[in-house]
Design a protein that fits this description.
By secondary structure, the chain is of the alpha+beta class. It folds into 2 domains: 155 residues, Thermophilic metalloprotease-like, CATH 3.40.1830; 199 residues, no CATH class. Helices cover 29% and strands 29% of the residues. Strands 12-11-10-6-5-16-17-18 form an 8-stranded antiparallel sheet, covered by helices on one side. The chain is globular and about 50 Å long. The protein starts with 6 loop residues before the first helix and ends with a strand.
Length: 368
């Protein structure tokens, strides 16, 4: 990455701290990068030091897949050695990594955090720039929901985003995202179709829509950077139909892939051999990997690229469905994977009782 001196890049990086994180001198910022994204972490560290003198940068080995828990050095950097040693001694850490913890285990982990850490030792903000997302993990959930740490997640980040989606008008993104999230909360059922042949329906009754606004200024705020979506966890076991994508998370496919869904689970995948075979292996070998985990709507007017899911899922006029884990944002399923898949030019209808709202029509967001 050779564009450190580019003024647009510098402005975008400074805005991450100034506008997105609302960084203050008293903040303690922890930047986490895997080996794939170390240079981006160095860039953030360099310019972030202007805003928060107490800033650190840790690079760790890649997890290998979206949704896996980060390795122990990340837990140590965030929560300290005393916490890590105690959860390891009690046999909890291996269960965390396997995503086999129970509600009782989670309560015990929280108690250990209270006993072994103090607020002044914890980071107040975490920026995670990595090849594979750690958003849908217990680690992130503990940071934001229990310890009130602000958390910016940047999986699959590429420098082109400094010129596209990170140049968004964050006030507009926030307004759109909150508006769509409110409609998702009020809805009972979602139906999605698209010109490629997507036709899927699922319940969202009782679930809460969430807004990824790019504003991570209050304790416990969590979202992607670049941001710009509203999303919700569908009710488990209710999704039926099929959805079709032309994109893997990191590339355009040579031919579309079709995911057939029955009672909330992906049953078969067909289409481009390489990606469909990967997904078929995943859903048949990994527990809960085929769960319909998330439905999201893009709200960022500056997002452009469809071949990188971090930006693609934010594109205004698209939606996405994710499979795997949704335990960290209102769902009930734990899995060792979370994969977002883009749907282009969707028509989305929200149903509540006898009332229907057309949220999107062939890629046009109808509610502003």
């Amino acid at each position: 990455m050779n564009d450190w001196k580019d003024r647009r890049v510098q402005r975008a990086v400074r805005n991450i701290f100034r506008q997105n994180l609302c960084a203050r001198k008293e903040d303690k910022v922890l930047i986490l990068t895997d080996n794939h994204k170390e240079r981006v972490g160095e860039l953030l560290f360099w310019f972030g030091s202007e805003f928060s003198p107490n800033i650190s940068h840790l690079t760790y080995r890649p997890t290998g897949r979206h949704g896996l828990e980060p390795p122990e050095e990340v837990w140590q950097a965030a929560f300290g050695n005393e916490f890590l040693e105690e959860v390891k001694q009690k046999g909890l850490f291996e269960r965390i990594l396997r995503k086999e913890i129970t509600e009782g285990d989670e309560l015990e982990i929280k108690e250990i955090l209270l006993e072994t850490t103090s607020p002044e030792e914890l980071p107040t903000a975490v920026i995670a720039v990595n090849q594979h997302s750690i958003s849908h993990t217990l680690f992130r959930k503990l940071c934001t929901e229990f310890l009130s740490i602000r958390f910016a997640s940047m999986p699959l980040f590429e420098p082109f985003m400094f010129y596209t989606s990170l140049q968004a008008n964050w006030d507009l993104v926030a307004r759109r995202s909150k508006g769509v999230a409110s409609l998702l909360t009020d809805a009972e059922e979602v139906k999605i179709t698209c010109p490629l042949g997507t036709d899927i329906t699922f319940s969202v009754e009782g679930r809460t829509g969430l807004a990824d606004t790019g504003k991570l200024c209050s304790p416990g705020d969590f979202g992607n950077l670049p941001a710009g979506e509203a999303f919700i966890a569908p009710v488990e076991g209710t999704a039926n139909g099929k959805f079709i994508t032309r994109y893997a998370p990191d590339r355009k496919l040579k031919e579309p892939v079709v995911l057939e869904v029955e009672n909330g689970l992906v049953k078969t995948v067909s289409g481009e051999p390489e990606f469909s075979e990967f997904l078929n292996r995943l859903i048949h070998k990994e527990k809960n990997a085929g769960n319909i985990a998330e439905f999201g709507v893009g709200t960022n007017e500056r997002a452009e690229r469809s071949d990188n899911i971090l930006e693609a899922e934010k594109i205004l006029g698209t939606c996405h469905i994710a499979i795997g884990d949704n335990s960290s944002f209102g769902g009930k399923v734990r899995a060792n994977v979370h994969i977002d898949l883009l749907i282009e030019k969707p028509t989305v209808i929200l149903k509540t009782g006898d009332r229907e709202i057309k949220l999107m029509e062939e890629g046009e967001l109808l509610v502003r």
